[in-house]
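ZP: hey, is the glucose-6-phosphate complex queued? I don't see it on the tracker
AM: it wasn't, my bad. submitting now with these inputs:
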Amino acid sequence: MQTKSAIPATYTSHSPAWLALQQHQKKMSLQTMRQLFSEDANRFDRFHLKFNDILLDFSKNIINSDTVVLLHNLARERNVSQWIARLFAGEKINHTEDRAVLHTALRNQTDTVLLLDGENILHLIRQQLARMEEISDSIRQSRWLGASGKPITDVVNIGIGGSDLGPKMATEALRPYSQTHLGVHFVSNLDENHINDTLQKLNPETTLFIVSSKTFTTLETLTNAQTARDWVLENIEDPVLLAKHFLAVSSNKKAAIEFGIHPDNILDMWDWVGGRYSLWSTIGLPIAIAAGMDNFRAMLRGAHEVDLHFRTAPLEQNIPVIMALLGIWYINFFGATTQAILPYDEHMKSFPAYLQQADMESNGKYVDRNGQQVDYATGPVIFGEIGIKGQHAFYQLFHQGTHIVPADFLAPITDLHCIACHHRPLMANVFAQTEALMKGRTHDEAIHEMQQQGLSHEQIMQLLPYRIFPGNRPTNTLLFQTLDPKTLGSLVAMYEHKIFVQGIIWNINSFDQWGVELGKKLAKEIIDELQDDRPVTSHDSSTNNLINHYKRNRPK
Ligand code: G6Q
């Protein structure tokens, strides 16, 4: 690999818009949000956007009107609008794999024709949606029978990464919309405990497996699928009846058939859909089974409406664009390296993990589209948790730590059961946290508070440094009416497009994943070395010794 100094710097960090932001940051870093709010009574009006029933409040950021103008100048300089058009037109913008990036086509609700290599892919998509409907309806209506003639009670999705995280996140999120008699489970880990723990609770006569793998070569998935197949075979006389218990979703039909999946039970997906963008495709089958096809289609509609907004809204009014630019502001001009995702809805418990993959696999890249090493930071470390739980765990660092952690708070206005005694205090926490992160607690306020608590002067002086909060910690708040399928689709699409815009500004390809491929390859090589007890010497001393320690100590 070339050394950093041998590689010419890419122009982005030396471009006029970038340099203007650098200058502007020097000024803004001397300001506090507290001041900005007190100087401008209309700050919220200036810095919020609405889309359907989703409200994005971005006023609690270290920005003023000039910041927004300069950030949009950067977006224009990087040709964001032109790239949006290229994305939707199906250009092969995933240049390292020579592929189009068309997850937006999967939710396209229009009657237009979208040609890719001479084929109308909207037609192919609709065909597969119809098959999803047929399959999910027959399972939900107890018409799909297992080998012994009993209706299916449980569905197990076997997949990993993009073939697991999206369907799992959305199935959980739409739990209130799901039919209760069906259990929908997800197995991804290669650790046998995952599949064993899952199967322990299930009856092979009434369990249906979906082997979900775009490539149908993924070790984790194939190993789990093999275990599931053996488990079912123990209970049926005729292997032909396996077809009653196995479906596959894959673009590699041949491998799925070789594995033993009946050709009629294989749903298609395509190489122009990235794994982490695939929940809108047949990979979403568990969502349709759990929540019903109407709800799945509503989710697609919600995403499609965001697609239209993203394509047509001016950059200044464009929610994914502004979310992306705010991220750029902190990562590239304030040195932030992380981004927290904090939903205040139990059903969104896998939303942070879902976005972690979507964002980090897309924008965790150090080489730009010209094949050159970037000289600026790219994608942040994404992490998160249900917000209220995070408050009792890691928010301390947000308030008083030495790192700047930009955070997104997400909360529904209406909970499904409208239990005021739970939802109101929950929402109070959302508002209190973002306010506290913005304002902090000053020296005088800390003294006043301790005086109110009746502390002596001596105690106050002793505790004072610990009771001051610097504030000025940036947050976005996304409020939405309720977490229904359409809103879920819209929220996910907003984040997808945010990731896309950031990738464009950083001039990286957000749609390949060579790091994932590396992991798949390396493990395969070592598996062979684990077949016998001979010591290995082919690696570095750490890896050799770890492997040899394992070999010496594993059960014979
Ligand atoms: C996603 C990645 C990766 C992928 C998994 C599973 O964008 O490519 O997470 O989804 O490695 O791959 P298969 O679906 O091919 O089994």
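AM: back. The longest helix spans residues 485-505.
ZP: great, adding it to the tracker
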